[in-house]
Amino acid sequence: MKDYIEERVLDIAQYIIDNETTVRAAAKVFNVSKSTVHKDVHERLFEINRELYRKCREILEKNKAERHIRGGMATREKYLRRHASAH
């Protein structure tokens, strides 16, 4: 694996852990695709640093379990903004 890829994998994983962020948010910050972030933290990170992999997976699993709540909140905000501007 090339050095710059390994460095990116470690940077992304540390960012996700430090900020308890989502794959989508990490992809925006590092200017890569969500697919790249997934491959980095699910495959490459396991080979590079298993402890970091475990911590990162914990955060991502938590985010996955909560995503339906975030989606509902976003829908509610959209609804409230739409009706607030109509009155």
Protein architecture, described:
There is one protein chain. This protein has 4 helices and no strands. It starts with a helix and ends with a helix. The model has no long low-confidence stretch (mean pLDDT 92).
Features:
87 residues, mainly alpha, 89% helix
Characterize the overall form: elongated
Can you summarize the main beta sheet?
none
Strand content: under 5%
Helix content: over 70%
Which class best fits the helix and strand makeup?
mainly alpha
Query: If you average the pLDDT, what whole number results?
Result: 92
Terminal Cα separation, in Å? 58 Å
Order of helices and strands: HHHH
Q: Poorly predicted ranges (pLDDT <50, ≥5 residues)? A: none
DSSP summary, beta strand count? 0
Oligomeric composition of the shown chains: single chain
Count every helix, treating DSSP H or I runs of 4 or more residues as helices. Answer: 4
- Radius of gyration over C-alpha positions, nearest whole angstrom: 16 Å
Mind sketching the topology for me?
Blueprint: H1 3-19, H2 23-30, H3 34-48, H4 50-86
Helix pairs in contact: 1-2, 1-3, 1-4, 2-3, 3-4
Summarize the structure.
The chain is mostly helical and 87 residues long. The protein has helices spanning 3-19, 23-30, 34-48, 50-86.
